[in-house]
Amino acid sequence: xxxxxxxxxxxxISIDSADLNLIKKYNFDxxxxxxxxxxxxxxxxxxxxxxxxxxxxxxxxxxxxxxxEISFYDYLLIFVVCNLIKFIKDKISIEIPARISYNYNKIIxxxxxxxxxxxxxGINKNRILIKIPATDSGIKAASKLKLSGIECNLTxxxxxxxxxxxFDNEIYIISPFVGRISDIINCNFDSGVNFVKNIYNxxxxxxxxxxxxxxxxxxxxQILNLLFCDYxxxxxxxxxxxLNKKINFNINDFQIFKINFNLNFLNLISSKLLINGIIQFxxxxxxxxxxxxxxxxxx
Length: 299
Prior knowledge:
- Keywords: Schiff base.
- InterPro entries: Aldolase_TIM (IPR013785), TAL/FSA (IPR001585), Transaldolase_AS (IPR018225).
- The chain has helices at residues 3-10, 20-26, 35-43, 48-56, 72-85, 104-120, 136-147, 160-168, 178-184, 191-206, 220-224, 236-244, 259-296; strands spanning 12-16, 30-32, 92-95, 128-133, 152-157, 173-176, 211-214, 231-234.
- With 299 residues, it is an alpha/beta fold.
- It has an eight-stranded parallel beta barrel, surrounded by eight helices.
């Protein structure tokens, strides 16, 4: 047995990719995607045929990427989702543009237009999660959207204050970024892994229902220590590593930090990590928009 088959018996696996060929082949439980992953998939030619179809059959004169109106980008995004979702067992997370992460009203409007387009494409809203950075505005918007039956994946989770707000607002799922925490906190034990362990303990102790999807890994050992989560989301790089590794490993039993340590230290850096993550998301989004603009003018 390879390591991938071992892991998928323990936990639901989400693929952090938009690679149509990969997703067709392996039927993952769930999918998380973002503009940079869609961009990579466009550039590796896995969408050649369906992109040609899309650009020939859609109105190129509509606005490319506004916040509150249905755009060419929105149609393309849901078209991609429509082609992916048939190969996914559970849900797909669709990311809002990072530029509206601090704007409550625009998050609400953008999420509603995503669900409207999903309905137009015949995608059941129960298969969709709106992926929103866990700013205060994002958490508040996700709570409001839940009242309309729209569930969310709150991403860029770096501290327990974010977690508590998500739990209290009964957010469907949160995505703590393991690797980005371990990158910045150097210690004898893996700080990113222990942060997620603290989240899990807090959830269990107070009987919260929000699911935990561990994300942003730096090594296989982090993945193997987080199989108690509801989901993990992995990049194609780590999928290949899991697929190619036989079970002849030792799992390190990491020591759990005290929750107070994580609160005191992570609270000092979490806002910077959140802002940096949003900035990177926005760069990725802009790169995709530039490619779409090029395609519009060259098809």
